Amino acid sequence: MATSRFTRKMAQGGAFTVFWLMGATAVLIMLFVVGYIMVQGIPQLNLEFFTTSPRGGLSGDGGIYSTVVTTFYMVVVTLLIATPLGVGAAIYLTEYSEKAESPIVRRLVRIARFGVETLAGVPSIIFGLFGYALFVSALNMGFSIMSASLAGACLIIPVVIRTTEEALKSVPDSYREGSLALGATKWETIRKVILPSALPGISTGILLSAGRIVSETAIFFVTLGGSYRVPHSLMSGGRTMALHVYYLAMETRAFDKAMSTAAVLVALIVLMNLAINLITSRISSKTR
Amino acid sequence: MTEEIRMKAEGYSLFYGEFKALNDISIDIPVNRITAFIGPSGCGKSTFLRSFNRMNDLIPGVTTEGTVFLDGNDISKEDVVDLRRKVGMVFQRPNPFPKSIFDNVAYGPRLHGTRNRSDLAVIVEKSLKAAALWDEVKDDLNKSGLAISGGQQQRLCIARAIAVEPEVILMDEPASALDPVATLKIEELMNELKKNYTIAIVTHNMQQAARVSDYTAFLLTDENRAGNLIEFGPTRQIFTTPSDERTEDYISGRFG
Prior knowledge:
Number of helices of chain A: 11
Number of domains of chain B: 1
Largest sheet of chain A: none
CATH topology of the largest domain in chain A: MetI-like fold
Structural class of chain A: mainly alpha
Oligomer: heterodimer
Distance between the termini of chain B: 29 Å
Shape of chain A: globular
Low-confidence stretches of chain A: none
Order of helices and strands of chain B: EEEHEEHEHHHHEHEHEEHH
Helix content of chain A: over 70%
Distance between the termini of chain A: 46 Å
Shape of chain B: globular
Order of helices and strands of chain A: HHHHHHHHHHH
Structural class of chain B: alpha/beta
Number of strands of chain B: 10
Mean pLDDT of chain B: 91
Largest sheet of chain B: 6 strands, mixed
Radius of gyration of chain B: 18 Å
Number of strands of chain A: 0
Strand content of chain A: under 5%
CATH architecture of the largest domain in chain A: Orthogonal Bundle
CATH class of the largest domain in chain A: Mainly Alpha
CATH superfamily of the largest domain in chain A: MetI-like
CATH superfamily of chain B: P-loop containing nucleotide triphosphate hydrolases
Strand content of chain B: 25-35%
Radius of gyration of chain A: 24 Å
Low-confidence stretches of chain B: none
Number of domains of chain A: 2
C-alpha cells in the first residue's frame, strides 16, 4: 500500500517535471528567436531608417519607408476587398443557409463550406500562382498592389468567413428569438442585435487577417513585383516589409538591415496580437 | 363560458417532419384573463404556446393543420411581423439584448417607426412602470440590460414586450429560472397586467397555475407521443373537480 502510494507520487512528480520542462523549452525558444532578432536589429534603428526608401542595388542602402507605405496599402486594400465578401458569406452561411429549402442550394452550401475549410489550409504560394496567372497576366494588371490585394483577399477570405461564422454562432439564439418575437424582420435582427454582439469576434478575425497580410511573403513575391519605390497608385508594384526582409537577406550584403526590418515587423505583429487580446478579454468580460 | 375570446385554436395539429407533436387541439383564450397551459415535460405545451405567435415557423420542417385565430382572423394569413407586434412573448430564460435598459425597451417601438427621442422616453417610462421595474432602474437607464439581476432582467423583458402595445402576451415558463421572491414579483405583475392584456402562460409549476390563472388547459402525450388537450376549463374547476381522471392524477401529483 505504502509503496504504491510512493510510486504514484513519483510518477506524478515525474510527469510534472517533464511537462514543465517542455513548456519552459517552448517559451525559451520563442524568447530566443524574438530576442535574437531584437538584439541584432534594434541597434541600427533610427529615424532615418523609417523615413528613407531603400536605394536598391547590392549594398542594401537606405531605409524602409516605401515598404512601410506598401504594407499599409496592402493591408487596407486587401481588407476592403475581403471583409465585405467574407462577412457577407458568413452571414449567409450561419443565418440563412439552414433555412434553404431547395436541394440544389443545400448542396451548393455544403460545397461552399467544404471549399472554405479546404482553402484555409492551402499554402499561400498556391494563391500566389493563381493570382499571377489570373490578375497579373490574364487580366493584365501586372505586378501591382491591385493584383496582390486580390490574391491576398483570396487567401484571407476563408479566415474571415470562419472567424465571422464562429462569432455569429456564439451569439445566443435567445437574442434572435427575442428580437423576432418583437416583430423584427430577420435583417433587422441581424443588423441591430446579432452583428453588434458579434462585432468583437469579427474584428478579431479581421485583425488576424491583417496580420496575415503583413507577414506573408510567397504570395506577394509573385504578384506584387518587388519595386522598392513608393507606390503612387493601385497599379504600382511594391514590396511589403516582409518581402523586403527576403530581398535584403538574399540579394544584398545588408544582413543587418534585414534584421532591423524584421525587428520592426515583429514589433508590429506583437502590437496586433495585443490588440486582439484586448478585444477578446473585453468580450469575455461582457458575456460574464 | 361566455367570455369575449381573443385567440382561438381550432383542430390544431403540428408536425416536426413526420412526427406529430400536437394532435387536434381546440381552445379559446379569453380577453383580459390569464390562461395557463400545464402538463408534464414533453407534452407540447411550449410548442403549443409558440403557435400563437408563429415562432415555430423558425424551425425547418414544421408543418401544421387546423387554424389559430387572433380576433377572428386566421394568423397564418397575417403578416408575421404584424402578428408578433400584436402577440408578444416572454421567454423561459430572461433574454435582454446586450444593450442599455433604455435601448432594450425602445427596441420594439423603434422597429415599428417611433424615432423621436422624447416619444421613446415616454414609452420606456410607461413600459418600465407597467413592468414594475421603473423605481429600481430609473436612474440607471443607460446601464446594460445584462447588468441587473435575473428577476429584474425578466421584468425588463416584460417591459420590452409591453412597449409595442401588444394585445396578447405569451409567457413560456417566465419564472422557472428565478428565485421565489422574483417569482412572486412576476406573479403579482401578471395579475396587474391582465387588466390591459390577454395572457397565456406555460408553467410546470401547478401551484403557480393555481395561484395566477383564470383558466387552465391540461395537456398530455398520447401513446404516439403527440400532445393532446385533455381538459380545459376555469382554473378552480380543473383543480377542485376535474372531469378527467388523468387530470386528477396529474394535479394530485401521481405522475409528471
